[in-house]
Specification:
Distance between the termini: 59 Å
Shape: elongated
Number of helices: 0
Helix content: under 10%
Largest sheet: 7 strands, antiparallel
Number of domains: 3
Radius of gyration: 29 Å
Number of strands: 33
Strand order of the largest sheet: 23-29-26-27-28-25-24
Amino acid sequence: MKYRSGYAEVKRLRKYVNGEPTNEVKNNVPGDPDYRPKYLADSCPVNTTPNGVFTLPIEPDNILDQYVNPIKGTGEESTLAFSEYNKGWTTFYSYIPENMINMNSDFYSFKEGQIWKHHANEDQRNSFYGQDYSTEVKFVSNSAPSEVKIFKTIEIEGNSGNWDVTILTDLDRGHVSKESFKRKEGLYFSYIRRDKTDATKPELLSVQGIGNLVLLNNLTYTFNLVPGGISSGDALFKASAGSYQFIGNVSSRTDQSLTIVGGSQIVPSAGDFMFTAKNPIAESFGLKGYYAEIKLINDSTTPIEIFAVNSEVSKSYP
């Protein structure tokens, strides 16, 4: 298969009157009513498509001021968009058309033999070929890259807090659910919460070792000493050969015993090492890491705006 790899670009426009050129010229810029997008020129070289790559003709989408081109490979399929304004590839789209065409400043694509007009309903966003998609925004926060930091909050500048957020650092991971965002001074604000899987991380301050079990009587566990930081609601675990088993939640305590409720089917034996862990979400203090990869997901099909995403970050001191 052959394809042309270059486009001719119109730099300047000259005004014509009755078919005759005038001395009135201007730059050809996106957004101008007379803007002319670049086009595939006959003089462009023809090259061979690389193995494993399938391509369709690139077509301009005048509404978005982008050129879109679906690509296929051995991994995830996407449609890429090239922006003339930014001079680069700016967007991945989830829809995969069979072909595309720009006609009379309208953008059309074909799917399963049907023709679809894009931007036909401005009140129904992220809907392609009858299927709704989510919007995803992904970026990396990496100020002071040589320092270990604590990422504490997520603040969204926009008209909606309806975003589910996942945060992944090189040392930790956490999340913010859309229900957690509160509007403060025009921003949508929330603290970053740890994932539930963090409950058994022994390096966290919310994990408290107790010691070996002395006696088990029904749902009451007796030890030589129960640390003072353990309270009702903490989760009790049994440790064995590097693995952890959930026993139940603490309902009451004394200086030497814990009573649990909602227990599992695991029955510890005397001598087993036990520890407790507080709720990792409620006890969140932020995520440690050199950098944070932040991904926002919004499933709305109505128009929304997002201008900036901020995070309160402080240096971590060992």
